[in-house]
Amino acid sequence: MNDEKIAMVGTPCQVLAATKVNKYPDITGGSPIDIKIGLFCMETFSYKYMRMFLEENQVDINEVKECSIEQNQLKFLKKDGTTFEVPLVKAEGFIRKNCDICSDYTADISDISIGSIGSPKGWSTVIIRTPKGQEIIEALEKQGQIETRPIEEKGLNLLKRIATSKKSTNRINIQKREAISRPVVYRREVSEEEFQNFVQECQFENLESDVISEGACVLCGACEFVCPTNIIKIHDRKPYIKGSCEEGCHACYTACPRTYVTEAVLPRNLDDKPIGDYLDIKAVNANFIEGQDGGAVTAILSYLLKEGIVDKVFIVSEDEEKAWKPKPRLTSDIGTVVKAAGTKYSVASIGFKALKEEKA
Ligand SMILES: Cc1cc2nc3c(=O)[nH]c(=O)nc-3n(C[C@H](O)[C@H](O)[C@H](O)COP(=O)(O)OP(=O)(O)OC[C@H]3O[C@@H](n4cnc5c(N)ncnc54)[C@H](O)[C@@H]3O)c2cc1C
Ligand code: SF4
Ligand code: SF4
Ligand code: SF4
């Protein structure tokens, strides 16, 4: 277990959570997450309200075969071949409010970031950010597992426009919230030293006042994962504690992606770079995978397991009992990874819980 390596796939906020857990191992206990595959993300939905919305529109969620967002339309392809489609603005009621203050569209601090915007239908846009990420994509190309093409200028411009729009709109939302004393502490400037000193005083009650009660929690599960006394539970879309905090512990406040984030974790100059820093960007199609877009995520995770580069991967599959409800998993089985392909648009934690159970 000590030498175990894990690759994760997740939204930008989940990637930030994993980065913070690993940045402060003396406080949080760290994690074996070694490779981070980030997804582009404009927003996420509440499962309960999405289900209710579909019911109101006479759509049985059990009959939905595919869910996608294309050209500002939310599309549900049903098993009988018909489609229920609404403009994304009509889905505002079930978009999680914390997404309004999110300043990252393309998971800027991942090894590889992947989304659909920028590439033709059936292809994934893949942003390679680190040498580790580059090695993975080159190996997959060499093995013939993926086909790649340059991103067309039109696609790249569209991607940059959308990313810029998210960053600038949400920057205004952050300023508005700060002006009415609803803190968005993760975007405040703080030095590493200030952060380390400040968190010494912070326990769950501070997490509650600065993040949870402010509607800024992204439900990533990092607080639950790092709590040494296991008193944090996540229920009804909210972390809470059952019991008292250990004296001197400030792990949850340190790990949370919505408390203070220093320059070393998320450089501030990324706010002015629509899609972050990168080495290369390509359109990718995974030849043997039926994924949400080009199947790039599934091809990468399967390759990492097959080659023994990681021992396990965090994925988000579908709950067996509830159609389209995301279920985070930790697995070493390629078949399970392939089965989990496809986007579940409602909010999910990452596989921290499964990892914690394994650690216990
Ligand atoms: C909430 C959300 C919002 C998104 N918004 C955008 C967007 O605005 N623009 C854009 O271009 N792309 C967006 N994406 C990404 C896009 O939908 C595809 O996931 C991406 O293009 C990868 O496609 P693929 O065919 O390579 O992946 P696949 O090979 O199909 O694999 C998809 C992977 O995503 C993981 N996954 C599925 N649901 C979730 C979830 N809820 N949380 C974390 N991981 C999950 C699965 O574990 C699976 O491994 C979003 C994804 C999510 C989860
Ligand atoms: S906070 Fe919302 S918009 Fe931002 S990465 Fe997380 S799910 Fe996506
Ligand atoms: S013991 Fe308290 S302060 Fe420490 S991680 Fe758990 S809830 Fe947070
Ligand atoms: S409070 Fe917990 S679940 Fe919510 S964002 Fe912070 S670490 Fe994640």
UniProtKB/TrEMBL annotation:
<dbReference type="InterPro" id="IPR007525">
    <property type="entry name" value="FrhB_FdhB_C"/>
</dbReference>
<dbReference type="InterPro" id="IPR045220">
    <property type="entry name" value="FRHB/FDHB/HCAR-like"/>
</dbReference>
<dbReference type="GO" id="GO:0052592">
    <property type="term" value="F:oxidoreductase activity, acting on CH or CH2 groups, with an iron-sulfur protein as acceptor"/>
</dbReference>
<dbReference type="Pfam" id="PF04422">
    <property type="entry name" value="FrhB_FdhB_N"/>
</dbReference>
<keyword id="KW-0408">Iron</keyword>
<dbReference type="Pfam" id="PF04432">
    <property type="entry name" value="FrhB_FdhB_C"/>
</dbReference>
<feature type="domain" description="4Fe-4S ferredoxin-type">
    <location>
        <begin position="208"/>
        <end position="237"/>
    </location>
</feature>
<protein>
    <submittedName>
        <fullName>Coenzyme F420 hydrogenase/dehydrogenase, beta subunit C-terminal domain</fullName>
    </submittedName>
</protein>
<dbReference type="GO" id="GO:0051536">
    <property type="term" value="F:iron-sulfur cluster binding"/>
</dbReference>
<dbReference type="InterPro" id="IPR017896">
    <property type="entry name" value="4Fe4S_Fe-S-bd"/>
</dbReference>
<dbReference type="Pfam" id="PF00037">
    <property type="entry name" value="Fer4"/>
</dbReference>
<keyword id="KW-0411">Iron-sulfur</keyword>
<dbReference type="InterPro" id="IPR007516">
    <property type="entry name" value="Co_F420_Hydgase/DH_bsu_N"/>
</dbReference>
<keyword id="KW-0479">Metal-binding</keyword>
<dbReference type="InterPro" id="IPR017900">
    <property type="entry name" value="4Fe4S_Fe_S_CS"/>
</dbReference>
